[in-house]
Amino acid sequence: MRSVAPGRVNLIGDHTDYTGGLALPMAIDLVTTVEGARGGDVVRLVSAEAEGEARLSLDLDDPAAAAPAWARYVAGVVAVLRPETGFAGQVSTTLPLGAGLSSSAALEVATALALGFGGTATELALACQRAEQLATGVPCGVMDQLVSAGGVAGHALLVDCSTLAVHPVAVPDGVDVVVVFSGERRHLATSAYASRRRQCEAAQAILGPLHHASIEAVEELGDPVLQARARHVVTENDRVRRFVEALGAGDFVACGRLMIASHDSLRHDFEVSTPRLDRLVSELCAVPGVYGARLTGAGFGGCVVALCRPGALAGGWRVRASAGARVLDGEAGPARLS
Ligand code: GLA
Fold first, then answer.
1. CA–CA gap between residue 236 and residue 218 (Å, rounded)
2. Is 231 within 8 Å of 217 (Cβ atoms)?
3. Alpha helix (H) residue ranges in 137-223
4. Whose CA is closest to 75, among 112, 31, 36, 40?
5. Is the CB of residue 144 less than 8 Å from the CB of residue 302?
6. What is the pLDDT, as a whole number, of residue 195?
7. I want to staple 168 with a disulfide (CB 3.0 to 4.6 A). Which of 74, 148, 155, 241 is the partner?
8. What is the per-residue pLDDT for 334?
């Protein structure tokens, strides 16, 4: 059997998912494939791109201790799903590893399907979010796994993370979405991500859910750091709404402005950018035909996403909005996926 799960790029709406806010990711045409057969009492995978073998017993108890490093994600899935039968096969990917395009979410989702997961896309995403948290210790949100599991070809997904309701939003043919890797592997991500999340929770303890908070309430917050973090979240949720409207109206100039404002907010209020990401965004925005650019995902390195006129950017990966995870052949797949 063969299962496939895509990576993602987030067009706008970062560091909003874990406070129940809005995000607009799209699944991309770079994918991870798991191929093999069920059987036995261990999960055994080799990777075409990374060293070593993942060899995991079905009753493993600490996914974070698995080796090599990539095997932790597989171990996380085993620990969450607790399959009764093992699996032997290989994993391969067209995604760049550790570049911020959710290669780990794609591996988790493809693995879960290979192990026989049979629920909805949302259930698959929640299981894989838990797997990622167990594997890495990072209290990540659900965005990456949700779009990898439930992506819709030709569309980004407007995700309301307070309900996990998902609305496909068409990505028009008249624009290119281009992803450019900064060359910086994400560092500090573990501790800084957790600390940002804690700061958002501290702001919510005062203001209530940030997805309901007004900007006026945020400006009343006494602590300047909590205020800046909350301001990012509240303004970013608003930018997602306006971006969806602008995209629907074909107003790419407005979309680009919102992306630049999002980057500035992630840089100054949320402090998850780096000098290299800032430089890359400025350079890309200076290219004729580029409407806007921003860091995408967690930040601290990784990738920038740009929206531009078709063909305006020669470098980077021109990505297409793609379908979510699926089982391609072999045994029964996830009957209710999609
Ligand atoms: C990472 C996490 C997501 C989300 C983004 C930031 O990709 O896995 O849940 O929080 O960062 O938007």
1. 13
2. no
3. 143-150, 189-207, 215-219
4. 112
5. no
6. 96
7. 155
8. 45
Inter-CA distances, 29 with 40, 61, 177, Å: 33, 34, 12
Which residue in 24, 26, 110, 31 sits closest to 73, CA to CA? 110
Which band of pLDDT confidence, cut at 50, 70 and 90, is reported for residue 333?
very low
Residues enclosing ligand 1, CB less than 6 A? 14-15, 17-18, 140-141, 143-144, 297-298
Question: From ligand 1's centre to the CA of 137, what distance in Å?
Answer: 14
Does residue 190 have a pLDDT over 90?
A: no
Is residue 24 a contact partner of residue 157, using CB atoms and an 8 Å limit?
yes
CB 203 within 8 A of CB 221: yes
DSSP code of residue 37: E
Helix (H) or strand (E) holding 303: strand 303-308
Distance 36 CA to ligand 1 centre (A): 30
Flag whether pLDDT at 337 surpasses 80: no
Instruction: Take atom 1 of ligand 1 and give the residue whose Cα is closest.
Output: 298
CA distances from residue 275 to 278, 282, 315 in whole angstroms, order as listed: 5, 11, 20
Exposure string over 188-203, b if 16+ CB within 10 A, otherwise e: ebeebbeebbebbebb
| Measured distance CA(75)–CA(291) in Å, rounded | 41
Burial of 311 (0-12, 13-18, 19+ CB in 10 A): exposed
CA distance 129 to 302: 20
pLDDT tens profile 110-153 = 999 999 999 999 999 999 999 999 999 999 999 999 999 999 99
Residue with tokens 């990539």: 70
C-alpha 315 – ligand 1 centre gap (Å): 25
Residue nearest to atom 8 of ligand 1 (CA): 140
Phi, psi for residue 158 in degrees, rounded to 5: -80, 110
Cβ-in-10-Å burial (0-12, 13-18, 19+) of 95 comes to: buried
